[in-house]
Amino acid sequence: MYINKNLSAHIKGRFDDCDDLVTKTFPELEIEVLFFGHLVGEEELNNNIVQPFSNIKNDEVKNILRRIEFKQEEDINSMVNGILEGKALVIFKNSLAYAVDIYVPKTRSVAAAEIETVIVGPKEAFIEDIGTNLSMIRRRIKSDCLKVLSYKIGTITQTKMYLLYIEGITSPVLVKELQERINNIDIKGINDLNQLIQYLDRKPLSIFPQYFTTERPDVSTSKLLEGRVICLLDGSPYSLSTPTSFFEFFQSPDDYNQRWILGTLSRALRFAALVITLFASAFYVAVSMFHYEIIPVKLLHEFIKSRSDVPFNPLIEALIIESIIELLREAGARLPSKIGQTIGIVGGIVVGTAAVEAGFTSNILIIVVSISAISSFVVPHIIMTASLRIARFIFIILASIAGFFGIIFGFIILLIHLCSIKNMGEYYFKPIAPLSLKDLKDTIIRAPYQFFKK
Amino acid sequence: MQNEKFKPFYLFFITYMTQMGIVFFSLPNIIADHFGYNGWIMIIPISVVVLIHIGLIAKIYSFNKGESIFETIESLNSKAKMILMPLYISLSIFWSILSVTIAKHYVHVMKFLYFPQTDIQWFVLITLILTFYLVTRGIITIAHICTIFFFLSGPIILLLFYFVPDFSFLQFSTFLFNENKDFYGGMIELYTAFLGFEVILFMFPYISKEKSGFKYVFLGHLYTSFLYFIVTIFCYGFNSIQQLTRQVYPVVTLMKYIEFEFIERLDSIIFILFYLKVLITITMYVWISLVTLKRVVKWSDNLIVFVLLAVGYISTLAFVTKKELIILLSTLTRVQLLISVFLPLLLLIIIFKKRRSNG
């Protein structure tokens, strides 16, 4: 839409009832400046607009408007969008419009990662501003092969999104496929990357996360170097990477920053934690309902003694304690960290001890459930932990139905499901299925870097 | 799904996992019963014969160049389809009955050992659900699952070291095949224990072409033979021949002997882990009946598998007791033995005929 007359009124008409729109006028120069005060930097405004137009004569205005930062706009929609993006729109003689980018995001500054903490390695995490996030990645990959494609998500929110990949490493098919999926998203608005990945999902019924998200720029960089595609979304302190494999969720930057033997051992520990968190409670239920024979005689005495006062069957008992743990976890997540500690003490010590003394549960179960809860937090990625917790409840119920056979049944279903998921044309359970010995060096174990060379 | 192929090394896992079945638990008993003293020696010649049998399949594979065997059969005569249709249907029904019977047999043993009060139909249904789920994922996923199951159940064999201190060569005695009851019947019985390799015949179009890719089938078979051999030897060295002939499942008895600090009576866990292997055997037979029936009807995979499993389930519904199941299973495996001998021979004849007519 092109308008040559009364431009200012048109634009103001679009922003009708938007009281936060600031209008600054220089009447003697016939200049009007429109911008949102909370989107622009004060210093930038001063340097680019206020100072140049102060104390000058009419004929100097054209020289100023010829400067590089003044970009002439002709389409009224792009003028409006420009203002919304934090540009100042300079209207000259009510007919010519120039956009000046003086956007300064008012967000928090870069801080240490809070969820994906590491012992050794860089501490910084992404923040809500997409430009800062992109700069963190550009700073790490100084190559012109790093390509950045820009998108707008949400018909109303027009949220900025970047798709990053490294030319020559990432397969073009993958980029095309993801572009297609992004273009197919049809929503009004989006708040966070974790919402976006659910729109991109092709297996919405699976309990497992289909995309890998991280708040760490160093992890995103290494994903790029592995040939994956990264997405950044404005307003979200996360990046997503795809294609994803199940085993990615068990890797931590610590594995790579520490010596390989330590990295390998801590990975082994995590897989042990995976097994414990999935099966420990279910195993307890199976043993106490069906397979008493596997407990050695010496232990059996204690086991029966602890169970003898409990009025419920092992399934109800396990579900009660597991639910209490879930409540504690949920409460801990919602509360400020100072009160959160109190919850831990109240929940862990008071409720736990009291439940046993009141004959509500057996103390062996308390041990089993606590170990499986602790193990679930060993998994470095919160999203995966949540999936595993769901699976754990299913296993407990299956164990109560058919003992070990029930557990095996659930396990087989789980494995078949994991093996049949494909993410962007790649198998989710790679490199176990399809088996690739070469890639096992960096999934189950973390071999010394010398071994990675091809 | 049609275009996707798997690497030949998966053949190792598929061959081994399909061959190894529930018979593993009763094998020493079968051998002791039929061959008597030092019957374990018979595993070697039978395994060699099976090796030759696999050699036939390897020959067909090299002639066929990745073409499915159905195409080979149908290429003979375009009008042959009229005769082939009923043949395909009866074969696929036979295989579905065979696989449900295998499932039922395993489930029966499991009920007998660990869940005495449960109705076996429940376990059969659960097994069929798993089979349905696995078969409908396609052969690539089946191959991947085979590999995972192999590594999950493979390390169990290391438990044999537990028996080394109690192993006694005295138990072997110096007699050879004394007190054998049915030598020839035993040979057939032992041969059927190796069955399962013939499913490879149906996989030709799915194997990605690689030089000497077929060697993995031989390796898989050798690994099965090795396991049969070593477990039987341990059973012979651990029990006397009289004990072996009286234990129905000597391998389960062997496992019951294991005792650790934290866990006693590992046998239930191991036996149920063995379910992974049995499931693959069942799945493979259902899968070959699926691909066979696909030549006849144009239904979706889900429907075909459902119909096949339902047919298999209903036709074996009457067989409930252990004795009935064993008789049924041994009859079916003998028929399967005949199929696995005559099918490759037929294919070879067709191939040679075709080559001659082509000059």
Automatic annotation (TrEMBL), chain A:
Which terms does the UniProt entry file under GO BP? spore germination
> Which key words are in the record?
Membrane, Transmembrane, Transmembrane helix
Q: Which domain of life is it from?
A: Bacteria
Provide the transmembrane region boundaries: 268-290, 340-358, 364-386, 393-416
- Protein name, please? GerA spore germination protein
Q: Which family does it belong to?
A: Belongs to the GerABKA family.
- Taxonomic lineage from the root: Bacteria, Bacillati, Bacillota, Bacilli, Bacillales
Record has Disulfide bond as a keyword: no
Annotated PANTHER family: LEUCINE ZIPPER PROTEIN 4, SPORE GERMINATION PROTEIN
- State the organism of origin: Ureibacillus xyleni
Pfam families noted in UniProt? GerA
Identify the GO cellular component terms for this protein: membrane
Q: Does the keyword rRNA processing apply?
A: no
Automatic annotation (TrEMBL), chain B:
UniProt membrane topology term: Multi-pass membrane protein
Q: Does the keyword Ribosomal protein apply?
A: no
The biological process GO terms on file are: spore germination
GO cellular component labels:
membrane
Q: Is Repeat among this UniProt entry's keywords?
A: no
Q: Which UniProt keywords apply?
A: Germination, Membrane, Transmembrane, Transmembrane helix, Transport
The compartments listed are: Membrane
- TM stretches of this protein: 9-31, 37-61, 82-102, 114-135, 142-163, 183-204, 216-239, 269-291, 303-320, 326-352
Family the UniProt entry places it in:
Belongs to the amino acid-polyamine-organocation (APC) superfamily. Spore germination protein (SGP) (TC 2.A.3.9) family.
Which PANTHER family does the entry link to? SPORE GERMINATION PROTEIN A2 (PTHR34975:SF2)
Q: What is this protein called?
A: Spore germination protein (Amino acid permease)
Origin organism is: Ureibacillus xyleni
Q: What is the lineage of its organism?
A: Bacteria, Bacillati, Bacillota, Bacilli, Bacillales
